[in-house]
């Protein structure tokens, strides 16, 4: 699946990077190569770009750039207990983390 | 202090690694800023004297990589290859080592004398990160010097290392990173082929060329293509591509990058111990608010509003003060000069010309203090993230927003602020939208016209409409440019959100000072020249007949036996009338008349034509010229001028609207054009742009005038 199809909180592993040369190069320079794990942190208030965390860095990319990154989803957002995401979910759904 | 040897040091590193703070800490005040040849990328150069050495430091632009995709990367690479600095200091951010070392690896491949300055050691210690420096030095071959540029720690140690390396006391081992077997095989084969070409062999490092060829590097391609050996090299490359696809199902470029990442990742595993991050950091908490779905935009607009307020609310009293100071200067100087031409040249030409340049300084300094604060604190990247979607729709970048909004205050600092945009095409497009944002100088024109021809409630709506029209035309222009001439090389939005940092006061002030000097030196001369030119055009040639009439009438009034107040009033009226006559007689006046057939369809006569010509000096001059030309003399306050305009037969609501639209859209003031030329780097696009805005202004005013005639 494509990175652009992931949802907030999803974790995934990069399997291929295709984009026009300059963009691809930048993606790879910032660590998005095969085998890298990433997590979708949030979408911008207007829904684009996307913020991801990868190798301890916070990266941003537009949806159309994220379309070039093929990923393997690792686990769904719900099953992962992370302090600050949990906090937000508790408010939203009334669930306990 | 006697200096024996000069050493050239180049600082290379990722954006935000602290290169500039190191550069400032090292060179202090001994700096100069220029552009790298051929590109509008700033080249900061400075020097320091240390232990009988004069060390020249060049701050290269921040890059993630050494590919030829962005001008920054090309500049960095060319500088290292062509200028051959004695030592390359790679500034790496200690808290973000893994990504930073990716560039180190690429510098290693170039086999230069490389020193690694491990910056932000204070933060590294604070966060409890342990780095095994000896082991890291073993792996990378170069010496690693821990520093903290902010606190000026470790700088002497770094300089001692620089001297030792350049004197050959420390040998920098040229470690090689080993790539995957297939890549290595291809590298060997290609570099063997390249070494057959004697000229090429002497000029460059074959292994590096081979790696770059495999990475699909177009600069190296054109370099090697010139030689006969290219035929064989090309075959070898194709074979390598096939092998990579067969064995790794990818291309050599990706494989090489993956290998570099693997090397760096391995080194990190071996040498760096990070404490487990259990809680979200302060940065994360700030981001939860600042990038929040609901709060993100309000916070963004609040910040932009604050910057705007800082620049213009705080700046305008300073501007007024400067204006006043120059007025005072004119008044003090005037009596010491012989009356007539010489006095006029000095007082009205030179002093007010210089004044018109200097008057923008408070805005520039304040804006850049604000912007460098945002940049250094880490919010700028987030602001771009929040607003990018809107900007991207018009082909712009998220970072275009702040310069554009600054344009509502004044185009000059706004155009200079586009330097935060990395891609040239994004920058050009943004620069060309800025003049359409109604700047502060256009406001008096709107106030006069809207106030004279519309009831108060309606006037506000009219002005609001004018502002909206400017935004619409600006965005439309950006979209037009980005979908035609500037279609290529948009900056990818792939970027890093740096952790929040508290910017140091000195760095903020430093940035602002730099911009101020740059403005005065580069744009200032151009603007000054143009302002004086317009002054000359509106004062020459002078009509001798009018001068004679002035003398004759003055003498006549002097002899009259009336009250002194009445006499003074008559004299004033006379002077105003003669002044208007002279303006009509001058070059500006004649060009206004010459323009009349062109602007007739917009509802303008030659008087407005003159105002539009002199308005090129600064938009608010339109008002004062109208004042002169309708000869209301020294009492040019807006109420009386608006009365005169109302009673004038050429003026109607339609003309007023049409004129407002034209003033909004036509060529920006000479100061803005000067800065634009400076930032764009060439006259051609600026002239083309001027033609474009004139056309747009004409068409828009024409439509406005005709529609208004129909409906009003």
Automatic annotation (TrEMBL), chain A:
Coiled-coil intervals, chain numbering: none
GO molecular function: transition metal ion binding
Keyword tags: Iron
Superkingdom of this protein's organism: Bacteria
SMART domains linked to this entry: FeoA
Stored Gene3D superfamilies: 2.30.30.90
Ferrous iron transporter FeoA-like domain boundaries: 1-73
Matches recorded under InterPro entries: Fe-transptr_FeoA-like, FeoA, FeoA_core_dom, Transcriptional_repressor_C
Pfam families cross-referenced by the UniProt entry: FeoA
SUPFAM superfamilies noted in UniProt: C-terminal domain of transcriptional repressors
Name this protein carries in UniProt: Iron transporter FeoA
From TrEMBL, chain B:
Domain FeoB-type G: 6-168
Gene3D superfamilies hit by this protein: 1.10.287.1770, P-loop containing nucleotide triphosphate hydrolases (3.40.50.300)
Membrane topology: Multi-pass membrane protein
The family this protein is said to belong to: Belongs to the TRAFAC class TrmE-Era-EngA-EngB-Septin-like GTPase superfamily. FeoB GTPase (TC 9.A.8) family.
Function: Probable transporter of a GTP-driven Fe(2+) uptake system.
GO cellular component, one term: plasma membrane
Protein name: Ferrous iron transport protein B
Membrane spanning residue stretches: 294-312, 354-374, 394-416, 428-454, 460-481, 523-540, 654-675, 687-708
Entry binding sites for GTP: 13-20, 38-42, 59-62, 119-122
Keyword line: Cell inner membrane, Cell membrane, GTP-binding, Ion transport, Iron, Iron transport, Magnesium, Membrane, Metal-binding, Nucleotide-binding, Transmembrane, Transmembrane helix, Transport
CDD domains: FeoB
InterPro entries (alphabetical): Fe2_transport_prot-B, Fe2_transport_prot_B_C, FeoB_Cyto, FeoB_GTPase, G_FEOB_dom, Gate_dom, GTP-bd, P-loop_NTPase
Ligand binding (Mg(2+)): 24-25, 27-28
GO terms, molecular function: ferrous iron transmembrane transporter activity; GTP binding; metal ion binding
Pfam families: FeoB_C (PF07664), FeoB_Cyto (PF17910), FeoB_N (PF02421), Gate (PF07670)
Organism: Chlorobaculum limnaeum
Subcellular compartments: Cell inner membrane
């Amino acid at each position: 699946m494509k990175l652009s199809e992931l949802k907030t909180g999803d974790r995934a592993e990069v399997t291929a990077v295709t984009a026009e040369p300059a963009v691809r190069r930048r993606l790879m320079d910032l660590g998005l190569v095969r085998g890298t794990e990433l997590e979708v942190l949030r979408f911008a208030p207007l829904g684009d770009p996307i913020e991801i965390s990868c190798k301890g860095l916070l990266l941003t990319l537009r949806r159309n750039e994220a379309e070039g990154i093929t990923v393997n989803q690792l686990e769904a957002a719900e099953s992962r207990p992370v302090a600050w995401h949990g906090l937000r979910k508790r408010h939203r759904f009334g669930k306990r983390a | 202090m006697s200096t024996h040897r000069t050493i050239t040091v180049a600082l290379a590193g990722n954006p935000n690694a602290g290169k500039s703070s190191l550069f400032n800490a090292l060179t202090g005040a001994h700096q100069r800023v220029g552009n790298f040849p051929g590109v509008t990328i700033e080249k900061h150069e400075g020097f320091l004297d240390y232990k009988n050495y004069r060390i020249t430091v060049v701050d290269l632009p921040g890059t993630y990589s050494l590919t030829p995709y962005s001008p920054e990367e090309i500049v960095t690479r060319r500088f290292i290859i062509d200028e051959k600095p004695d030592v390359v200091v790679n500034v790496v951010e200690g808290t973000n080592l893994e990504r930073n070392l990716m560039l180190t690896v690429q510098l290693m491949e170039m086999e230069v004398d490389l020193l690694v300055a491990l910056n932000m050691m204070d933060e590294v210690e604070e966060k409890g990160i342990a780095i095994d420096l000896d082991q890291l030095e073993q792996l990378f071959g170069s010496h690693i010097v821990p520093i903290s540029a902010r606190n000026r720690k470790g700088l002497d140690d770094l300089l001692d290392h620089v001297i030792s390396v350049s004197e050959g006391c420390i040998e920098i081992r040229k470690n090689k990173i080993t790539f995957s077997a297939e890549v290595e095989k291809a590298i060997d084969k290609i570099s063997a082929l390249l070494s057959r070409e004697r000229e090429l062999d002497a000029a460059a490092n074959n292994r590096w060329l081979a790696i770059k060829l495999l990475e699909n590097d177009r600069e190296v391609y054109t370099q090697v293509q010139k030689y006969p050996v290219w035929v064989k090299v090309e075959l070898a490359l194709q074979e390598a591509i096939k092998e990579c696809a067969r064995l790794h199902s990818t291309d050599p470029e990706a494989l090489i990058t993956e290998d570099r990442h693997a090397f760096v990742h391995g080194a990190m595993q071996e040498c760096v111990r990070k404490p487990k991050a259990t809680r979200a950091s302060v940065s994360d908490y700030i981001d939860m608010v600042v990038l929040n779905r609901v709060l993100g935009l309000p916070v963004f607009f609040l910040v932009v509003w604050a910057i705007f307020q800082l620049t213009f609310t705080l700046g305008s009293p300073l501007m007024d003060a400067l204006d006043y100071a120059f007025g005072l200067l004119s008044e003090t100087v005037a009596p010491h000069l012989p009356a007539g031409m010489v006095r006029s040249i000095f007082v009205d030409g030179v002093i007010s010309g210089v004044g018109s340049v200097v008057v923008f300084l408070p805005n520039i300094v304040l804006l850049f203090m604000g912007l460098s604060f945002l940049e250094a604190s880490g919010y700028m990247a987030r602001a771009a993230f929040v607003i990018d979607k809107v900007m991207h729709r018009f082909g712009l970048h998220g970072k275009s927003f702040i310069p554009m909004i600054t344009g509502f205050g004044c185009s000059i600092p706004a155009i200079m602020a586009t330097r935060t945009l990395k891609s040239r095409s994004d920058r050009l497009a943004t620069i060309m939208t800025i003049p359409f944002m109604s700047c502060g100088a256009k406001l008096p024109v709107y106030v006069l016209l809207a106030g004279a021809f519309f009831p108060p409630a309606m006037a506000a709506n009219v002005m609001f409409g004018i502002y909206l029209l400017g935004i619409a035309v600006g965005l439309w222009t950006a979209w037009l440019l980005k979908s035609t001439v500037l279609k290529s090389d948009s900056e990818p939005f792939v970027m890093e959100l740096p952790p929040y940092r508290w910017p140091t006061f000195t760095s903020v002030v430093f940035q602002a000072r730099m911009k101020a000097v740059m403005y005065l030196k580069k744009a200032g001369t151009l603007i000054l020249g143009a302002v004086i030119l317009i002054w000359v055009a509106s004062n020459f040639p002078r009509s001798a007949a009018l001068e004679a009439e002035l003398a004759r009438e003055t003498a006549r009034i002097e002899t009259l036996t009336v009250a002194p107040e009445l006499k003074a009033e008559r004299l004033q009226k006379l002077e105003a009338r003669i002044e208007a006559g002279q303006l009509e007689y001058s070059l500006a006046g004649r060009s206004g008349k010459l323009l009349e057939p062109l602007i007739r369809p917009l509802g303008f006569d030659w008087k407005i034509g003159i105002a539009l010509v002199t308005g090129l000096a600064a938009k608010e001059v339109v008002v004062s010229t109208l004042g002169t030309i309708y000869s209301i003399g020294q009492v040019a306050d807006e109420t009386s001028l608006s009365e005169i305009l109302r009673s004038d037969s050429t003026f109607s609501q339609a003309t007023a609207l049409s004129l407002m639209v034209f003033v909004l859209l036509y060529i920006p003031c000479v100061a803005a054009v000067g800065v634009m030329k400076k930032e764009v780097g060439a006259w051609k696009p600026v002239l083309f742009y001027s033609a474009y805005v004139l056309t747009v202004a004409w068409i828009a005013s024409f439509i406005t005038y005709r529609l208004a005639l129909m409906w009003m």
